[in-house]
Design goal:
CATH superfamily of the domain at 88-104 and 140-201 and 265-405 and 449-461 in chain A: Metal-dependent hydrolases
Low-confidence stretches of chain A: 1-28, 103-122, 448-473
Low-confidence stretches of chain B: 1-21, 454-478
CATH architecture of the domain at 88-104 and 140-201 and 265-405 and 449-461 in chain A: Alpha-Beta Barrel
Strand content of chain B: 15-25%
Largest sheet of chain A: 8 strands, mixed
Structural class of chain A: alpha/beta
Mean pLDDT of chain B: 90
Shape of chain B: globular
CATH topology of the domain at 88-104 and 140-201 and 265-405 and 449-461 in chain A: TIM Barrel
Largest sheet of chain B: 8 strands, mixed
Helix content of chain A: 25-40%
Number of strands of chain A: 16
Number of domains of chain B: 2
Number of helices of chain A: 12
Number of helices of chain B: 12
Radius of gyration of chain B: 27 Å
Largest interface: A-B, 80 and 72 residues
Distance between the termini of chain B: 38 Å
Oligomer: heterodimer
CATH topology of the largest domain in chain B: TIM Barrel
Order of helices and strands of chain B: HEEEEEEHEEEHHHEHEHEHEHHHEEEH
Distance between the termini of chain A: 38 Å
Structural class of chain B: alpha/beta
CATH class of the largest domain in chain B: Alpha Beta
Mean pLDDT of chain A: 86
CATH class of the domain at 88-104 and 140-201 and 265-405 and 449-461 in chain A: Alpha Beta
Chain lengths: 473, 478
């Protein structure tokens, strides 16, 4: 069974981007809004597979699914014979659409010697304590910075991804991640949820600015939680008694984080190895925040804890690799070797333990790498069903949007991927993709045509959303 | 002598990163040993009965109960596990939160790293308990924690249950930054003098006193039913200082010179707190009476000095002289390697200062236990105490002594014979993984060569995939 090669083919094929034409199909009088895919195999994820049925799409939503669903008169009909319809895939962590230049105003950057290549040198005074709010820009919202000219929008979509969590980078509280659908001419139309997640990162700077250590960063986060709690209480007291007290000072961080906590917005917490994972679970409990871990690659060692504590994980698909050009003198420890060997077994272990997880591409360059990484997880024992759930309904559920996407059910957003076979088979190709009910045909490049854009779009802006990466002990 | 131990650490350390080496606590009888009890002399041909992690009996005529594991320690020496009163092992990230002059918000317990191989190496040197301290970059540093070296357990299982939390202070050259300059463009941090160090501490405690009062008022008025109260803001840096003033947190202060030691005692008196230990305290012999009168302990080095100006006036007699004047003294490592032979460091105070063998051993067992407030649990071989023990092949005060087994809570966490036996297995597993990785890389390269880019869609081009992929059920393949 080579279905393992999953997305592979599709993706790989699609990776040779420019050659593939994927434009919306436009009729006269505007873009069509009604479609019916007939006689197709339908994998709704939320229920049993329908061997031959119809999916009806109307005005951006799925209108009907099943053997008895019929194509309405106004619909464009796609003969789905020999094709399979899946819910669109969700990449639960990318920087797709984020501007290449650092635009964030960084208030008092933490010491400046951060790992992020694009971090500007410290311009203002160094932070010397929590009051200076180092690396703290929670008001940045990915949706507000979204650029539609990122080539990866098309690359990812051609591979069957219809949705991505796009994450702002830089600092300790870098901002809020937004959930976007991967198709539009206008950024605003792409956004499914602008305030999808608060993003934390345990970054610390050099010795001369605060925080300069992991424990300092954690202490800082704790103080921000305290401050935010206080601000909420103090504001309420002040509003009720404006003539009794001095007004509490306005603090943008406290106000924004307070709002996120009130909305019960999920908080992305980086944690890749088992120590980081257990630490993150403990801190999330102490701070009473709805944490979703990202990284998670040593989850195989603590899968039971994750399941027991019901802490979801977004697993980084950029599996640890042997360093490209390692120091020949450096001895590899058994621990590193074991980690590299076992990390792709994490999804299988999480599935077995009953922990909820999704996947994210993070620093992977393109769909081809994603499909290779998924194949490794499948080879390591992850059932294809579970892999599909992780890319669809479970990711949607973790991100709080399972009422509107992640499966093929009436009323859900019409995000669909139509393939000519099992989505996890290497031979399979993506034929059509629907994003918000818009139809994209995926064409294979004419034979012999050189892929114009082999270079992944991420090359010049390698993502730093891989803090979770590495065993980092 | 040290080398094989270190190697052992590397090997086993990597073998089982997340699994406890130790077995479930049971009943163990260590017999035929010379037992160095510390509190009531040495027992020749003695036995120690361990039950449920505690020392159940010590004597010469003990019989192994049914089902007990017997460790025959014929010709060997058993002493209490070594307690290192100044350690920086098992910490993720920097041990210094260096920017602010007061970094008491930083907590070592937040960043314990149970996979640090130094835990295992120190265990192989007979250490069972360590006081994990923040660094000395600030007059008032971060929060500290006492751990047991339970190698293989998770971070939350390392802290010594019920032990007092601590905080690191530092005086002199490090907090005033005498020995390094900030990079261009970065201003010198305050304080830059010993006067400034004192002022920073006094200022912080003045604020902490005010903070305590604010919260006290608020809590009181709230309890009295007053409505619409404006709550004070929590301050993560000041709360541990309030705990210090309330006697709920120990102060472990890095120091060198006699004058700064006296300074801190004055400041402590002014704010009504105690200094629990002076760390390093290389000039402690000059003010031993004052230290003893304050009730503080001294935790020093055996013979390590002159590495900076303030460490020039040190003498190897320091531990013995302070002991003579009634200070509870320990010898610490401040270093993962030094910690592997603290028994030898203790022995030096017999040569320099003429301590008895028992008093020398106390420097690394009972005395640090007293300093850390855990002497009711560890530090000597007495019935009822935790079975934290180390078995040496020779008298631990001899340079020939090498730990054979180290027990914590009655479980064997280090076993030299088992370690040596495992080394070949470790090498084998490593090699197997390296080979596997190499093979996978070659296979991938080959398949890429055979199917450049777009050809993946053509199945006939991929006969290279001999390995059947058992998707879905291969979970147990590894």
């Amino acid at each position: 069974m080579k279905r393992v090669r999953v997305l592979v083919t599709l993706l790989a094929v699609c990776a040779t981007v420019a050659a593939f034409i994927a434009r919306t199909v436009r009729g006269e009088g505007g873009e069509p809004r009604y479609f019916a895919i007939t006689n197709a195999r339908i994998v709704p994820v939320s229920g049993a597979v329908i061997e031959s049925g119809t999916v009806v799409v109307a005005k951006g939503l799925i209108q009907a699914v099943g053997t008895s669903a019929t194509a309405p008169a106004e619909a464009w009909v796609i003969d789905g014979k020999g094709l399979t319809v899946y819910p669109g895939l969700i990449d639960a962590g990318t920087d797709i659409g984020m501007p290449k230049e650092e635009t964030a105003e960084e208030s008092a950057p933490a010491a400046g010697r951060g790992r992020g290549r694009r971090r500007p040198a410290p311009s203002g005074p160094l932070a010397m304590g929590s009051e200076d709010r180092p690396g703290t820009t929670p008001w940045r919202v990915a949706a507000d910075e979204l650029k539609t000219d990122d080539k990866r929008i098309e690359t990812w979509r051609n591979a069957g991804f219809t949705t991505a969590l796009t994450v702002p980078e830089g600092g300790i509280f870098s901002g809020q991640a937004s959930l976007i659908d991967l198709a539009s001419e206008r950024p605003g139309q792409m956004v499914v949820n602008p305030l999808a997640a608060v993003v934390l990162s345990f970054k610390s700077g050099g010795f001369f600015g605060f925080p300069s250590s992991l424990m300092g960063t954690i202490a800082y986060m704790r103080q921000v939680v305290d401050d935010t709690t206080w601000y909420e209480q103090a504001s309420a007291v002040y509003e009720a008694n404006p003539n009794k007290y001095e007004r509490p000072a306005y603090d943008r961080t406290e106000r924004v984080v307070g709002g996120a906590i009130r909305r019960k917005e999920i908080v992305l917490v980086p944690a890749n190895n088992s120590i980081q994972i257990l630490r993150a679970i403990r801190l999330a409990g102490e701070w009473n925040i709805p944490a979703v871990l990202y990284g998670g690659q040593e989850g195989y060692a603590v899968a039971d804890v994750l399941a027991g504590k019901k802490v979801p994980v977004l697993v980084n698909l950029k599996w640890p690799e042997r360093p490209k050009d390692p120091d020949p003198e450096a001895e590899q420890t058994l621990r590193e070797l074991q980690f590299r060997d076992r990390a792709p077994g994490t999804p299988a272990a999480l599935a077995k333990a009953g922990a909820k997880f999704g996947f994210y591409s993070g620093a992977l360059a393109g769909p081809k790498e994603i499909s290779k990484a998924v194949k490794k997880a499948l080879d390591a024992g992850l059932a294809p069903d579970a892999a599909l759930r992780a890319f669809t309904l479970d990711a949607a559920s973790i991100l709080g949007v399972s009422d509107r996407m992640g499966s093929i059910e009436p009323g859900k957003i019409a995000n669909l991927v139509v393939t000519d076979g099992d989505i996890f088979s290497e031979k399979t190709k993506v034929k059509h993709v629907f994003v918000d009910g818009r139809w994209f045909e995926v064409h294979e490049a004419p034979p012999g045509e050189k892929a114009a854009d082999k270079k992944p779009a991420t090359d010049d802006k390698s993502s730093s959303f891989e803090e979770g990466a590495g065993v980092n002990r | 002598m040290r080398r094989p131990l270190l190697l052992a650490g590397i090997l086993i350390g990597t073998l089982v990163p997340n699994r406890a080496l130790a077995q479930a606590p049971g009943t163990i009888l260590i017999q035929n040993a010379t037992i160095l009890t510390i509190t009531h002399g040495n027992i020749e041909h003695g036995s120690i009965l361990i039950r449920d992690g505690k020392i159940a009996a010590v004597g010469t005529d003990l019989k192994a109960p049914d089902g007990a594991t017997v460790i025959d320690a014929g010709g060997q020496f058993v002493m209490p596990g070594i307690i290192d009163c100044h350690s920086h092992i098992a910490v993720d990230g920097s041990v210094n939160e260096g920017a602010p002059a007061v970094s008491s918000m930083a907590r070592i317990p937040d960043v314990l790293n149970p996979d640090d191989v130094d835990i295992y190496r120190d265990l192989a040197g007979g250490v069972t308990v360590a006081n994990i301290l923040h660094g000395s970059a600030n007059p008032i540093g971060g929060q500290t924690v006492v751990i047991k070296l339970r190698w293989g357990k998770s971070a939350s299982e390392l802290p010594f249950e019920g032990s007092m939390p601590g905080i690191k202070f530092a005086l002199g050259e490090n907090p005033k930054r005498s020995n390094f300059a900030p990079p261009p463009g970065v201003p010198q941090r305050y304080p830059a003098t010993r006067m400034g160090v004192e002022e920073v501490i006094r200022q912080a405690f003045t604020e902490a006193r005010e903070y305590k009062k604010q919260w006290g008022d608020y809590t009181q008025r709230k309890a009295a039913g007053e409505q619409n109260l404006m709550p004070p803001r929590r301050n993560e840096a000041l709360e541990p200082l309030v705990e210090v003033m309330e006697g709920k947190r120990y102060v472990h202060s890095h120091c060198y010179r006699a004058d700064e030691i006296l300074m801190l005692l004055r400041v402590a008196k002014e704010f009504g707190f105690k200094v629990r230990t002076f760390q390093h305290v290389l000039e402690g012999y000059k003010v031993a009476d004052e230290i003893a009168a304050s009730g503080a302990g001294g935790s020093t080095f055996s013979d390590w000095w002159a590495y900076k100006m303030e460490a020039f006036d040190a003498i190897p007699y320091n531990a013995a002289l302070m002991t003579d004047r009634g200070v509870v003294v320990s010898i610490n490592s401040d270093d993962a390697e030094e910690a592997t032979h603290l028994n030898q460091e203790a022995a030096k105070s017999m040569k320099f200062g003429g301590l008895s063998a028992t008093d020398a051993l106390k420097l690394v067992t009972l005395n640090p236990a007293i300093q850390l407030g855990i002497d009711n649990r560890v530090g000597s071989i007495d019935v009822g105490k935790d079975a934290d023990l180390v078995i040496y092949n020779h008298d631990p005060l001899s340079v020939y002594a090498v730990p054979q087994k180290t027990l914590i809570d009655g479980q064997v966490y280090f076993d030299r014979a088992r370690d040596i036996a495992h080394r070949a297995d470790v090498e084998k597993e490593k090699q197997a993984l390296i080979d596997k990785e190499k093979k996978a890389a070659e296979a991938e390269k080959k398949s890429e060569e055979k199917s450049p880019d777009k050809s993946e869609a053509k199945p006939e081009k991929k006969p290279a995939k001999k390995k059947p992929t058992t998707s879905g059920v291969a979970g147990d393949a590894r």
